[in-house]
Each structure stands twice: as C-alpha cells, then as structure tokens.
Amino acid sequence: MEIKKGIGVSPGVVISTAVVLDAEDVVIPRRNIEPDQVPAETERLGNAIAQSVVELTKLRDSTTAEHGKQIGQIFDFHLGVLRDRTLTNQILAEISQNNTTAEYAVSVVMRRQANRFLQMPNSYLAERVKDIHDQERRLLRSLVGNRRQDLAHLDQDVVVIAHDLLPSQTAALDRVHVRGFACDVGGATSHTAIVARAMGIPAVVGLGNLTGTVSGGDTVVIDGTRGVVIVNPDADQLVEYREFERKRSRLEVELSLLRDLPAETTDGHSISMQANIEFPSDIDDALRRGAQGIGLYRTEFLYLSQDHEPSEDEHYAAYAEALRRLEGRPLVLRTMDLGADKYTEKQAQNPERNPFLGERSIRMCLHDIPMFKRQLRAIMRASVLGDMRIMFPMISTLMELRQAKMVLNDVVEEMEDEGIPFRRDIPIGIMIEVPAAALMANQFAKEVNFFSIGTNDLVQYTLAVDRTNERVAGLFCPAHPAVLGLIRDVIRAGVRAGIGVSVCGEMAGEPLYTLLLLGLGLTTFSMNGPDVPEVKKIIRSTSTEHARNVARRVMTFDSERQVMHFLREETRKIVPEAF
Ligand code: PEP
Ligand code: MG
Questions:
Q1: Is the pTM of this model over 0.90?
Q2: How many angstroms separate the CA atoms of 179 and 528, rounded?
Q3: pLDDT at 150 over 70
Q4: Residue 91, Cα to own-chain centre: how many angstroms?
C-alpha cells in the first residue's frame, strides 16, 4: 500500500482498477519487485511474448492473403524480434538480477537494442529501429493492459493514471467507464482538471512520481476531495472509502432535488445558472443538473478530438447539434481557444517557448483568417437554429476585438451575397481574462453586448502563476484582493453600460465564492454541470442584502487568507453542510 498526496482538483472518491498511460511513448518508470515475485514476472513476460506471437502470426497470414507474400514478410522480422532468445534472456536477466517489473525490463532492453541498431552504418538495419519500437509497444500493451487509444471504448470501469493528460487525450476518453484521473503534474485549472469536473469524476494532480508507483491492474483509491491517492489500499481503508462513496451519493441525491427549483435569493432575485461544456453531448447532463443554458462552449475541443482542422460542415454539425439539444435555451459559443495547454498534434511539433504568453486563442485566429472564417461561417449558418451568442476569448486590446468583428462582418457579407440566411443581431461578447481587458472594461463595454469573466486565466495572468504548474499551485488563488478588485470593476463597468456580465471560470462553480460574487452584483454564473446544485443551494439560502454586506466586508481585506476564512464562515452560517 502507498499513500500519495497531491492537489484535489475534482471532488469525490472512486475505488477502481488502474490504467497507466505512460507506457505509450515515455519510458516506463522503474518499479522494483520483491525477489519472490520474480517467477510471477517471468511468467507474465512469457505470456506476453506468446500472446504477441499469436497476434503477429495472424497479422502476417491475413496480410499475405490480402497483399501478397512480399508484404507479409515484413512481419517475419517482427516475429524474429519476439522469438530472439538472446533478447528474451536479456529481459529475463533484467527482471531477476535487478528485481524489476516485466514491463520495465522490456522497455530497458528493447530500447538498448534499438539504440544499437540506430548506430549501425547499415541503413537497412537502422530503419529496423521502428520495428523494434513497435514490438516493444506490442509487448507493453500485453503487459500493462488497456492502451491510450483504447481509452475511448472501454468495457469496464477504470481510473486513469498518467504523467500528464493532454486536453486532446481527455477529449477522447470513454465518458462512461473512466471513473477518475490522477496525474504526476498539473494544477487546479488545467484543462484536464476542468474536464474531470465536467465529467463529475474525482481527480488529483501534482502527485510527483505516481506513475512510478502504480502498475496497470492495481487497485487505486482516488480521493479528489482530500487530494489523496492510495495505491493497493488495505482492508480498513477500503471500508472507510466505501462508506465515503455512499455518503457522497446520498448527498448527490439530495442536491438533485434542487434541479427544478428556481435559482432565486430569499428576497426574490433571479440568478441565471449556465453550464460550461466541451462537447454538445455534455448538454443533456448539464440540463439534468439544473443548468438553464450554456454559458461557455469551448469549441476548441472539436479541433482536439480529431486529427485534422474541422471543416466548415463539421463545425456546423456540432453547433446545430448543440442548439437542437438546448431546445431554445441560450448557447454562448466561444470561438476557438487553442494554444497554451490546448494544442493539436501539429502544433506540438512546433512548440512555443512560453505558450501561455504566445500565439494563443484569438491571436492564432487573427493570424490565420481563412481558418477563423471557416468557424465563423459555420457559427453564422447555425445562428438561425436557436439562441446563439458569439464570444471571443483572450482579448487584450480593442484593436483585436475590432479586427475579430471585421472578419465576422466579411463573413456575413459573403453569406448575404450567397443568399445564406443568418441572424443579423447575434449578440457578441468577449471574455475578460487578461488584466489589460479588465482594466479597460469601460471602453470594451461600449463595443460588445456582454462580458464573461474567465477567472482561470485572469488569476493566472494577474498573479503571474501558471495555472498548470503544480509547483506554484499554492499561489493560484481567486481570493487574492487584486483579482477581486478586477472582478468588481468589470461587473461595475458592465452594469453601468447596461450589458450582461457573467463569470465562467472555475470560481463560478466554487461554493466558497458564491456569496461574494452575488454581493458584487453578478447575475449570471456559468460552471461545470455537476457544480450547479451546490451553488444554487447557496443562492437560495441568502438575500441580496446579506450577500452585498459580505462582499463589502471582503473588499476591505488585504489578504487572500482573510478572504477565504471569512467566506467559509459566512457560507457555513447559511448552509452548514457546505464544503
Ligand atoms: C477561463 O480562463 O477562466 C476560462 C473559462 O477559459 P478556459 O478555462 O477555457 O481558458
Ligand atoms: Mg481562458
């Protein structure tokens, strides 16, 4: 048994079987075994080789039948690698002499062999390195269990253990059977954490070398509430966590009773509860939790879930589906926000030195107008199908906003010429997530129909804290008075100009900040679906007057600790079971 402490980024507890992702292209972490486990590891290796030989023979035979003997022969070399006694003996020696797992031994020996080939002057042999890597993967697949590409279609519940999960990987996960995440690195507002919260599954990040401790098939407890991961728990811990799981599901049932009740303060002020989504298929669940519409649709996940840039028709199909599922409820569609920690395979090949401060989001769109236009055209085509609004992310200058609007104008003029219908008065808004935009909120308010405050990035850029870096996770805090001052001023600027203001960062879904945001005059909250009931409960338990008093007091504090302590006390007074 091993207990590891990290950062809990999505609450709840799950006990399940581990799938370790790092076998794909990262060195398998060294994991030592007891000497008496050597025979078992040797047997695992033997089984894996036998299974791989069967797979390859089948592949060779079917390829020969379909494409001829010459092509089929390629697999003979692969079979030769697996049957090579010298190689097998080296792997066995690694297991027995160094007391390592079979997967670690395979990885070490095969990579050593590949390097030997790579150094050979004979280019034919050097080319065979790829084949060796291929066989290494095949053996690891058999030893470690489910693979990354299989994670889209699982037939049993698992928890995913990874060094890091890219948004493109989380996008492709089986949403029914993946029951929890745990990663070596990451922070609370990294997109992996956000996706875990949207899926309503526990997640812990920043665990250091967890992948070096867990093997595929181990039983793992992920406690996202306390930020703890237990590998191979003992019987007492299993009992404790099963009870915890039961309590949590009882609470969920209680909260679900709130779904059809209005999000209204005790003095009758209605608050709009919106949800954040990554895919149109997330909408039904968000509505089931009580959301009244979608306040943030992260459309970049469309780019991340496939290996090519979406065509105009693919964009259109996704937006039309979202509007259909919403049945007239509002949809705030954010234009593509790639870059920083969300990048495609192609972008990964050409990384930026400092991607959070680089060609991200709207900057990328304005550098590739044809791509931007493809998305805007699809949005405008879908705009006649429901209550759609457009939101531009990462705006930091007025010029950027004006350019984006100009591109949109070009698009609609072209559509007009072609006789394609679109909604002329589609509301246009921006995300306020860069301090420069927050400080110029009065000027921006004159040129848009709404603001949505993206606190994840606003905190990151105001406090100079990378939202994905576990080393500085303790400094990432929305309660910092500097951040609160910006939020207050943006809400004020919106109210003064008569435009809508929402908060769509993770802060909106954290019950700790509900009273404060209400008191600052916020009337629209957009959050992950699973957070809706708890936030609604707090809204229904306070008057606007009380929330205003709380906010007034909070704004006199000069430290985030004071702010959080006070908010916790005040919230517990009205909802004792909160947190
Ligand atoms: C934000 O920055 O707060 C936000 C909602 O956008 P994202 O998390 O997608 O960057
Ligand atoms: Mg953002």
A1: no
A2: 17
A3: no
A4: 37
